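Reference record
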Amino acid sequence: YELKVGVYTPDQYEVNDDIYNVNNQNNPVISINSSISASLDNQDDIDCYKFSLASSTNIGIRLQNIPSGMD
């Protein structure tokens, strides 16, 4: 596995850069059967999201319109 440690300046537009903000501030939460639009800033961009499911729910996640060179 890879462990990456770094120092960064928080970006007010990137509230979902780490799992702490998603888990502790519920930011952002995705509603089931909804879509979101987001941007990839660079190849190292990290975006975390949160959604709630019943224990027996199957889901599908689709990532599309990925800019060239960002996959």
Remarks:
- The mean pLDDT is 76.
- The two ends are 19 Å apart (CA to CA).
